[in-house]
Amino acid sequence: MNREKNNKNFIIWLEEIWEEIEIQFFGIAGAICFFCLFYFIYQPSWMKPLVDIFLRMKISLLSILQ
């Protein structure tokens, strides 16, 4: 009886941790999508340096892979 209770507690603990990981993942993914959408709609000038950095990273990564 005691072992079953410990197993159930452990499974509940794992489920709660997994739920927190999912919340963090979807929060980060949502924030990235929001800023991409924001950039494509408004194209603010203060975001241009960040986009340039990503484009340079992409170009340098492509040259390394070839």
What's the short version?
This protein is mostly helical. The protein has helices at 2-42, 48-65.
What would you note in describing this structure?
This protein has 66 residues and is mainly alpha-helical. The protein has one domain. Helices cover 89% and strands 0% of the residues. The chain has helices at 2-42, 48-65. The longest helix is centred in the middle third of the chain and has 41 residues, at 2-42. The N and C termini lie far apart (61 Å). The model has no long low-confidence stretch (mean pLDDT 85).
Q: What's the alpha carbon Rg, rounded to whole Å?
A: 21 Å
Order of helices and strands: HH
The poorly predicted ranges are: none
The span between the termini is 61 Å
| 3D shape | elongated
Give the overall pLDDT as a whole number: 85
**What class would the helix/strand composition place it in?**
mainly alpha
Largest sheet: none
Report the sheet-strand fraction: under 5%
Q: How many domain units?
A: 1
